[in-house]
Every structure is written in C-alpha cells, then in structure tokens.
Amino acid sequence: SLDQCRIVDLPKISDPRGNLTFIEGGGRHIPFDINRVYYLYDVPGGAERGAHGHKELQQLIVALSGSFDVLLNDGRNKKKFHMNLPYLGLYVSPMMWRDITNFSSGAVCMVLASELYDENDYYRDYEKFVAQVRGK
Ligand code: TYD
C-alpha cells in the first residue's frame, strides 16, 4: 500500500575524490533481493514514463543523475515524490500505479527490481488496475 512506499536513505561514503553510494540486497537496504536492474536515460523533455502498475514486483527507484517526479497511486490515494539525490531511493511496493514525469535533461532513472521482466505482472490499463484494487 501507499504507506509502505517510502524514501530509503542509502549509505553515502563522502570523499574529496567523489562520493560513493552502494545498495545491498538481502534485506539490508531494501526489503527484496535484486533480480534485475534497468535505467531510463535520454528521456526527451516532456516525455512521461511508467503509466502502469505491477501485481508482484517491488522496486527501488533512484535518480542517479538529474531529477524527475514519481507519482504513486494505490487506486485510492496519491503521493508525489521529487527525486534528485543519488543517495535516496524510493521503495515502490506491489499494486502501485506509477507515473514518472518532469525529467530534467540528462536525468538517469535507475530501477532495482525484485523480479525478472514479466509482461504478465503488468497492469497497463488504469481502469482495470483500479477495479482490481477496489475488488470489482
Ligand atoms: P515499460 O516498463 O513500459 O517502461 P517504463 O515503465 O519505464 O516507462 O517498458 C518499456 C518497454 O521495454 C516494454 O516494451 C517492455 C520493455 N522492457 C523489457 O524488455 N525489460 C525490462 O526490464 C523493462 C523494464 C522493459
């Protein structure tokens, strides 16, 4: 549910030579094991990504570079997160519709995912997603 979705403070090793952040699975920094990593980049101004929900998939979304907004919607309530720091991750629980918008130029959106890619795990129709959530 929306209450489970939260900003995760990742370790940051500050160094005059440049900072370092790491993310470990096994329940240490995120509550799932990482089975897949993907990233969005070269996103043209005004483009919108996401616009779908997942049945089982859990994710951690990180703005590796630049910024964007993530709008989460559990079918009842919505919450908007502005992502612009590479040491903060947004944990997205299952059954969450997400829209990703307002990409800055040069933004890189990295996503850690709990499962391999599976189109059968997607809700791509918002009305169907809401109907499922509301038990219709
Ligand atoms: P999609 O998940 O709709 O993109 P986003 O949510 O980032 O806007 O995926 C876009 C296309 O890429 C779709 O045809 C499926 C494919 N795809 C893969 O093959 N593997 C993956 O891990 C992901 C995330 C997408």
TrEMBL record:
Residues annotated as domain Sugar 3,4-ketoisomerase QdtA cupin: 4-133
InterPro entries: QdtA_cupin_dom (IPR008894), RmlC-like_jellyroll (IPR014710), RmlC_Cupin_sf (IPR011051)
Organism name: Mariprofundus aestuarium
Lineage start: Bacteria, Pseudomonadati, Pseudomonadota, Candidatius Mariprofundia, Mariprofundales
Protein's name according to its UniProt entry: WxcM-like, C-terminal
Highest taxon listed in the record's lineage: Bacteria
